[in-house]
Amino acid sequence: MAQYAERLDEVFHALSDPTRRAVVRRLGTGPASVGELAEPFEMALTSFLKHIRVLETSGCIRTVKRGRVRECVLEPHAFAAVDGWLAEERAVWESRTDRLERFVLSGTDDEREDGS
Amino acid sequence: MAQYAERLDEVFHALSDPTRRAVVRRLGTGPASVGELAEPFEMALTSFLKHIRVLETSGCIRTVKRGRVRECVLEPHAFAAVDGWLAEERAVWESRTDRLERFVLSGTDDEREDGS
DNA sequence: CGCATACTGAGCCATGCGGCTAACTTAGCG
DNA sequence: CGCTAAGTTAGCCGCATGGCTCAGTATGCG
């Protein structure tokens, strides 16, 4: 278990920006060029390109240059990492609430986690 | 749909740091004081406290001061937001692959999404 | 009371982020 | 060939982040 990680930092960072999340959302509906993706946003193209780079280096998207156009496609694989982390987290948390539940129901002390 | 969001920026940002993810993981096993949480890390307590603040303002954790000790507890609710976003994302993406599948199987053109 | 413990606040510093403009490169079209 | 369209590179700017130290504050124990 816990094999996910790796670029988890970068993926979470990539998703922490609304512009980038919007791009991801858009790419969910299919591939698009940088220009197409940039169109809904006010910012300069160069600024927007930085977001694309962040998404790409984090592994959230893949891009290829065809002619003078750069095509971007979603890399759903990257989100599995987030999903996996979340699942592990929930597993830890749920096993804890399970123990708590047993403790409450049984009245026995099952609740010390500091090894002192 | 899409009711989650709100502090999604902050939550993703909070989770983009390994120290903070480790804290979240630890808190999954139960509440802890700032000092307890800080112990495994090299950094100064004041530096560590900033991480706690980030986690708190993002809504990932809740803290209360009892005596001179500040207790931190996980706020699993916050992760539901991430989970929700992820689910929406996947929904978009899967409806797209469904359409693609139909297209491939039927041979009809079902694949234009730009309204031009 | 006095002292150690557990934070807390203020403020410094280097780096990184997210925006910008200006100038350049390539590709496609006529 | 020459012009336009689509990126791309380089570099500037202000602000946020994540580390640090040093000097409080306040609680609990003896």
TrEMBL record, chains A, B:
InterPro entries: ArsR-like_HTH, HTH_ArsR_DNA-bd_dom, WH-like_DNA-bd_sf, WH_DNA-bd_sf
Name this polypeptide is given: Metalloregulator ArsR/SmtB family transcription factor
Superkingdom, natural source: Bacteria
Matches recorded under NCBIfam families: HTH_metalloreg
Gene Ontology MF, one: DNA-binding transcription factor activity
Matches recorded under SMART domains: HTH_ARSR (SM00418)
CDD domains linked: HTH_ARSR
Pfam families given in the database record: HTH_20
Ranges where the HTH arsR-type domain occurs: 1-93
